[in-house]
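INTERNAL AUDIT FORM
Audit reference: QA-55
Scope: verify that the stored structure record matches its stored sequence.
Auditor: D.O.
Record contents follow.
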Amino acid sequence: MTTKGQPGRVIRIDDETWADFGQLCEEKGIARAADIRMYVVREVNAWRKANGLEPRRLVVRRPRKPASD
């Protein structure tokens, strides 16, 4: 169990791809884990829709950008 109350999952991704993904997510202003969760929910919702099931919602909070002076 993680500190956020959800079970942790293990995935295997090569170091170069993981580093590039980290840079991409930093530029997007979102954590890698949040980006992965959003992708998985999009895929599952597409599958659910194709099978006549109700899609589920995922709320992801993005960190606030500091106010510019």
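Auditor finding: record pair retrieved intact. The two ends are 41 Å apart (CA to CA).
Action required: none
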